[in-house]
């Protein structure tokens, strides 16, 4: 996909601030610090579109990035970050769940996991939750550049065996590996 326009069109903590134009939306979910915001930047080929950080818990709101005036990538707060207070975690959880369960314009979910390690208990819970809600899911196993190429395939198989997605892409925000495959899935969802 050629990204000609990528704009942070809105930031929301409640539904009254979600976009009202009805464009299809693709949400990014995953553990805190796994690389959701970096994935958005790589997809859009914009280094500073979404804020990334070494500190987990950087993304605290729902951020709507409008791409080519055609659809949104929605960056969601990550799960599984222990330093966040109980009450804040509950609030984020409710906000994210409410969005994923009820958003009419949601066209798909990109579930981001770390290729280096087996999926965590939280990753498994999220996959199960997405399945129960019958959402179209692409699993993206990122940070591939951090392990030897010879291990990509066995790690991908472990992710697939554990989360059982309909499709799984090995990705690196650093090198751009897997970018075309993610866009292919998005375009399929847009036209189907
Ligand atoms: P939260 O907003 O806190 O939930 O985190 P996030 O999932 O948005 O993660 P973010 O994109 O901020 O990335 C976290 C850290 O991982 C940053 O230091 C990134 O530079 C790094 N990172 C993300 N993706 C990759 C990747 O593919 N390769 C490498 N080497 N580093 C990555
Ligand atoms: Mg983030």
TrEMBL record:
Keywords, ordered alphabetically: Cell cycle, Cell division, GTP-binding, Magnesium, Metal-binding, Nucleotide-binding, Septation
Known CDD domains for this protein? YihA_EngB
Instruction: Please verify whether the record's keywords include Magnesium.
Output: yes
Tell whether Magnesium is among the UniProt keywords: yes
Q: Name one GO cellular component term.
A: cytosol
> InterPro entries recorded for this chain?
G_ENGB_dom, GTP-bd, GTP-bd_ribosome_bio_YsxC, P-loop_NTPase, Small_GTP-bd
- Top-level taxon: Bacteria
Q: Where is the EngB-type G domain?
A: 22-192
MF terms per GO, please?
Answer: GTP binding; metal ion binding
Q: GO:BP terms for this protein?
A: division septum assembly
Q: Needs which cofactor?
A: Mg(2+)
* Family designation: Belongs to the TRAFAC class TrmE-Era-EngA-EngB-Septin-like GTPase superfamily. EngB GTPase family.
- PANTHER family given in the database record: ENGB-TYPE G DOMAIN-CONTAINING PROTEIN, MSS1/TRME-RELATED GTP-BINDING PROTEIN
- NCBIfam families annotated for this entry? GTPase_YsxC (TIGR03598), small_GTP (TIGR00231)
**Which function does this protein serve?**
Necessary for normal cell division and for the maintenance of normal septation.
What is the designated name of this protein? Probable GTP-binding protein EngB
What is the organism field in this record? Kyrpidia spormannii
